[in-house]
Each structure stands twice: as C-alpha cells, then as structure tokens.
Amino acid sequence: MKKDLALYNKLKEDIARHDYLYHVLDKPQISDYEYDQLITSLHELEQKHPEWDRSNSPTQRVGGTPLELFVKVPHRLPMLSLQNSYSPDDIFEFDQRVKKFLRDGKDVEYFCELKFDGLALELIYQEGRLVQAITRGDGFVGEDVTQNIKTIRSIPLSFSAKKIPSLIEIRGEVLIFKKDFAELNATQQENGQITFANPRNAAAGTVRQLDSRIAAQRPLRFFAYAVGAVEGQAFSTQLEMEKYFNELGVPTALDLTKICLGPQQVVDFYYDIEKRRSNLPFDIDGVVIKVNSLRLQEDLGLVARSPRWATAAKFKPEQAQSVVEKINIQVGRTGALTPVAIMKPVRVGGVTVTNATLHNQEEIERKDVREGDTIIVQRAGDVIPEIVSVVLEKRPKDSKPFSMPSHCPTCHSKVHKVEGEVITRCLNPFCDSVIKESLKHFVSRRAMNIEKVGDRLIETLVDQGLVKRFSDLYRLESDSLLQLERQGEKSVENILSSINGSRQTTLARLIHALGIRFVGEQTAKHLAEHFLTIERLAKATTEDLLNVPEIGPKVALSIQTWFANPKLAKEVEELQKLGVKIAGPQRSTSGVLSGVSFLITGTLPVKRDEAKDLIEKNGGKILSSVSSKLNYLVVGDDPGSKLDKAQSLGVKIIDWSDLQKLINDQT
Ligand code: IVH
Predict the structure, then answer these.
(1) CA–CA dist 284, 200 (Å, integer)
(2) Are 498 and 450 a contacting pair, CB within 8 Å?
(3) What's the fold here for domain 319-405?
(4) Ligand 1 centre and the CA of 34: distance in Å?
(5) Is the CB of 142 under 6 A from ligand 1?
(6) For the chain, how big is the Rg over CA atoms in Å?
(7) Does residue 81 line the site of ligand 1, with CB under 6 A?
(8) Boundaries of CATH 1.10.287.610 in the chain?
(9) Which CATH class is domain 432-583?
(10) pLDDT, tens digit, 9 for 90 and up, residues 444-483
(11) Minimal CA–CA distance to 334: which of 429, 270, 416?
(12) Which atom of ligand 1 is nearest the CA belonging to 226?
C-alpha cells in the first residue's frame, strides 16, 4: 500500500514533468508510447485505490460532473486594469509621468510584453498545488472555474520545483489559438451548435462552461504575466518573476518580451510586434509596458484602479465603418436561425466584406445592432468579418431594436428556443429553407454525389415546387426540367444521368446524406459497419446505438428522433422504391491497413478526401476525434490542437509520406 502510494506520487510527478516538456517547452523527452504507459499505470493505481485524493492527478484533465452554477470568490488582492493608449506618442507621455514621479532623470528600464486578447484569470497554488482558478470578474470578485481550468494541459496541477512558495497567485490570460478557433467553429457549425465571433469569445465561453467535459475538448491555452498574493518567495524584477513562472512550469510568452531602456526602445518594440502581429498564433491587441523593477513598481503605486507603473499601448485594429442595410435570417440545415447583417460593401484588411454573421439573439442584444445602424466592422482572428460595435451617434432616430422572429421567415411555423440555449430553431423538417439546405447536403460529393445538381438548381427546384423531399429528386423527368430557365436538352440529360448514377450507393453515403444532426461522414461509416442495413439502423435501440464506436447519448437520441418521424422514415422506403440500391459496407478487411485507425489534421499535399479514400481502400478506418483508441494521427501543415492531444495520449504521429510508406511497404 505504502509502496503503491510512493509509486503513485512518482508517476504523477513524472507525468507532470512530461506534460511540461511537451506542452510548454515543446521538447518531449520520452516517446508517445512511453507516455501512454505512464498514464495507463496511473489509471490502474487509481482504480485500485479509490480512497486516494486525486484532485491534482492528470486523470482530472478530462473534466467532471457538470456544475449548477459558478461560485463567486473574492480576490485576495484586486485584479487591476491597465490604462490604455492608442498611439506610440502616448508611450513617451507615460515615460514622462513615470520619470516625474520617480524624480530621477535616468532612463527607466521597462519590461515590454504582449497584450493578450483573452480572458484574465488567477491561479491559486497553495503548498505547490493548484487549489483554485478564479476569473477576473469585476476585479474584486470573480468566479471559481477550477474544474475547467484543470483541463488545460499546459497548466501544472502541482509544482515539481525544489523550493515551493506556501502561496502564489499567478495571473495571466486564457486564450485560444487562431488555428484552433477556426477548427472549433467549423466543428460547432457542422454539429448545428453555436459558433463564436472570435477566439476571445470562444475562450471566455469555454472558461464559463458549466460542463467541464466540454471545456476539456476545447483547446484552451494560458500565459502568465503577473502575481497576486505571494508568500514564501520574492522577486526583484518583472523579468525575474516571469522566469520564475517558467521554473514552476507555468507557461509565459517570455520569448516575445523585451527589456527596453527608455521610451524609444519601447516604441521600437511596439512597431516590431505590430509587424509580427498577424503571424503570431494567437490574437493580441497591443503591447503592455511595465516598469521592470518591482521596488520601483511599489514606489509608483496606483492611480484609481490602474497601476502607475504600467500601461497598455494598443494597436489599431483593422477596422472600417459601414452601414447595416438589413438583417437577414438564414435558416440552416438543422433549422438553426442565424441573423446575418448585410452591409454596404467595405474594405477591411484588404478584403471587401458585405456580410457579417450576428450569430444569435444574445449576440445582437449584447451589441444592440439594428438595421440602419452605422457600425464598426473588423475581421476576427484575421478571417471572419465581425461587427465590433455600433456608432450610436449615427443611429437613425426611428430605429428599433432587432429581435429574432417568432416564426420561421421561410415556412412561418413557430420557432423554438430551448430554455437556457442560445440557438433559435425552426423545427419543421419540411420548411423550404431546411429542405433546400438538406438537399444541398444530400447531393454533395461525400453524400449521394449528384454532381450536376448544384445549389442554384436546388433553389429553383424547390421554389418551383418540383422537389419537396429527397425522394422527389428521383421522380424528376425531363419534361418538367426543360420548363426551367437556362435548361436545354443536353443539360437536362446530364442532370438526369447524374441523378441516375447516384442510385447505386453505399449505406454509409446514404446515412450521411440523410443529414441527421451530429451524424457526419465518419459516424455514418461507423453506423453502416455496425448495422449493415438501413432497416436495422432505423430500429436500433439506445443500447444498440451506444455500442457503436464514437456514439454517445446525444448522437443516439438524435438518430432515434430522426427515424421516429414517420415522414422522414418513409423517405428511406421511397428512395428504395425509386431504385436507390444500398450496398452494405464493403470494408476491405484484407487490406494492409485492416484494423488500423487514422485521423487526419492539417493540410496534406493531397486533398483530404483523397487521403481518406486511400486509407479506407486499404482497409483502414477513419476516426473523427483523438482518443487512446486512435492508432495514427496523419499530420499535414499547420496542424490544429488534435496534434497536442494525440501526443499527450501517446498516439503515433505520421506524415503523408509515412502513410504512403506504410501502405507501399506492405503491398
Ligand atoms: S498586467 C496591473 N499584462 O489587460 C496590471 N495584463 O487592462 C495587471 N492583459 O485584465 C495586468 N495582456 O486581461 C497584464 N501582458 C499583460 C496582459 C494583460 C493582457 C489584460 C488583462 C487585464 C487587462 C488589464
């Protein structure tokens, strides 16, 4: 028992060290396989000894029971704010004020660093253990978000340094990298869930997520830059403090900081960082300039709620003014209603923008964007246009607040918003917009692959009442198609033969094409392999569904709800009556990759679909998320957070040429 405990503690320490080497220093010292072994041993020990305190165990990184609400916690020392300035001239003024106050003519030594555009957070370590993580809140009282913060793998759960302070409150910023943000929004969209306006909102929304298991799946990062209360440790400069954070294993962006003597060097730093801004992996909105000596910081003290020893020099964001001509409501495939601002075309950061999503009712209320408003628009995370704010002085007198319609703009059925959720939905599966979007998905290349039926044709077919459901596509005849504008004999022939070609399909393609919420291409493949026929899938019980890889209760419920709708279920019969032949899974179990699972991240030298097909043709399986069951992660350029996760789970990492070797060496 004693031996077990010693081993347990040693394992936790080793894992923490390897997490640091990997997540903070980017210099792993052991193979992924060896890391995996450590985690497995730790799990085994915890299972054997449920009585042990596992509050700082790496096994806590996956999240726990959802909370009812966050507990409010006062900060021991208030979390201050910085005075902002927008021009390098202000840096000279700041320096003048500092010098005047210190009554010393000498150049002041400044510690210059990035102004991270995330969410401020305080980590409280007592006797070297992370005991609490609190948001900034109003600076005096924040919220206890410990459960979520423990899922951030670069934040140590305990320190392994030799000398540990009895108390240290480390302050810093939680954020999401731009690349991870793009990946996250794409997944959210695919699943019919809310998308985020920018990486900061995504980070803030995740930190304030009551279900820490969701937070565990989101790629949060942390950078430290200040302290609150400290007992048992002293520093003399800001630089020393941040170096000390690193010694404790807490990440900083030290390599993007600089010691500057006098204001001119600070201004040079400001311009240098501004130039590099778009190439940084995360959003920043300026630089922060701090007097390096902590003794001088103390002498300088505070003005109101801001330190006199620091200032923020913000960058001008790439913004422009425009006018919201209209707020349109788009109805998506899952029935989600998305308000979209249609603006007078305007150039922002070298691109002309006309549309900006307003996401949902809450976002609109928060920004109070109205039709006719003059607004400031910028490109979030360098890509998506985002309305930042309204120029209230220019608001037309007769303007009215925008509110989401109570009825679907397309089919006029009453819309629904689940209590506590932000998405408003049209629940009518036969709404024209839902039908159009569903049909676009149905015919898409990875679904039924009806190449000649494009988005425009679908719009027309639905508007003309020729197609109301999937099966109607197979009822189309040349006479009715020839009546449509811009359709001649040849194009109609092409359309019909393209539709005809799709009659020979596979079960996986058909399941994917049906557009069941949360059932993407990979899940469809798993379902096809498991159930073999569509009839068996339609009759599957929750228990049956939960036995399929990667299917949880949410997906299971969505599948059952779909097949429980008699009109939808009948469609599957109709399709078959109209000659759609569904071939069961033809997995090549004899392929060289048989039984081996893969996941792709980043940009490969070939199209992603091509790579997937190659893997599957050789008997391999594609998974849709990283888990310890994954055998290989195939990594291309600019991989996302999947790479981090795979490495921490000990999944083998290969690139495109390794994959080709894997196949060719064995064939
Ligand atoms: S120092 C007394 N350093 O800016 C100053 N803050 O206006 C304590 N921030 O809420 C903060 N990057 O969210 C500091 N390198 C940095 C920062 C930084 C971003 C944010 C932080 C804080 C706000 C203060």
Answers:
(1) 10
(2) yes
(3) OB fold (Dihydrolipoamide Acetyltransferase, E2P) (2.40.50)
(4) 39
(5) no
(6) 28
(7) yes
(8) 2-62
(9) mainly alpha
(10) 988 999 999 999 999 999 999 999 999 999 999 999 999 9
(11) 429
(12) 1
